[in-house]
Amino acid sequence: MGPPGSGKGTQAQGLVRERGWVQLSTGDLFRDHIKRGTELGRTAKRFIDKGEYVPDLVTVDMVRQRLTQIPRDTRVVFDGFPRTVAQTDELDELLAEFDRSVDAVLLLEVPRTELLTRLGKRAKEQGRTDDTPEVIGRRLDVYERQTRPVVEHYKTRGIVRLVDGVGTVDQIAARLAKAAAE
Ligand code: AP5
Ligand code: MG
């Protein structure tokens, strides 16, 4: 977990490469649907381009579908899910269906100024439609309002591991590996 631009995708890809885990990024799944022009993609785009979250039902259905494709003995690193308290409850039910559970929450901590720098840079390089200054601000606010309570929820369960998300990609990967092994 972590706010927009904190490195969730970058670090999840590292875990996939080095450990054979499978990344489940709801943002990437939505962008793939948008690219393929599916109905789900059209729905998702309306929310994503405003920096709002896609409705829980739509999101959870998509996650369920993706989970059915992943062998049960493979570790899944969720990137950008769950993001609301409702999704958190749904995830527990969903994982129970698959005889799985959430082992740990790795939370990347990055100050807002650094997030703005990173996303501003990516806007120039890649032109992601939600990387405009206005939408970036909205995404950061939505994270604080809707996802911060999810972090608190997992903290009460004692499974959150805080990871300093500032530094080189390799430095942060090493911190994550340590936190994941604790
Ligand atoms: P999503 O795609 O998840 O976007 P996000 O959370 O806004 O985060 P990003 O992907 O922008 O950042 P990241 O943390 O993955 O960092 P990254 O590695 O890319 O979601 C997009 C939208 O989809 C949401 O706004 C919402 O509308 C919808 N959505 C997704 N999930 C949903 C859900 N569960 N429910 C409802 N709606 C949902 O790194 C960022 C940049 O920084 C990159 O350019 C990278 O190269 C660079 N960088 C990475 N690490 C470093 C470093 N150590 N130093 C310097 N730069 C770095
Ligand atoms: Mg990402």
Task: Provide a descriptive summary of the structure in words.
The chain is mostly helical. The chain is 60% helix and 10% strand. The chain has eight helices and four strands; from the N terminus they run αβαααβαβααβα. The strands form two sheets. It has a two-stranded parallel sheet. Helix 6 crosses helix 7. The two termini are 17 Å apart. The mean pLDDT is 97. BIS(adenosine)-5'-pentaphosphate (AP5) binds next to helix 1, helix 2, helix 3, helix 6 and helix 8. BIS(adenosine)-5'-pentaphosphate binds next to helix 1, helix 2, helix 3, helix 6 and helix 8.
Report the total helices: 8
Structural class: mainly alpha
Spell out which ligands are present.
BIS(adenosine)-5'-pentaphosphate, magnesium ion
Order of helices and strands: HEHHHEHEHHEH
What value does the Rg take, in angstroms?
Answer: 16 Å
Strand content bin: 5-15%
What's the N-to-C terminus distance? Answer: 17 Å
The backbone outline, from C-alpha atoms, is globular
Question: Helix coverage percent of residues?
Answer: 55-70%
Number of beta-strand segments: 4
Q: Mind summarizing the main beta sheet?
A: 2 strands, parallel
Low-confidence stretches: none
Order of strands, main sheet, comes to 1-2
Average per-residue pLDDT, rounded, comes to: 97
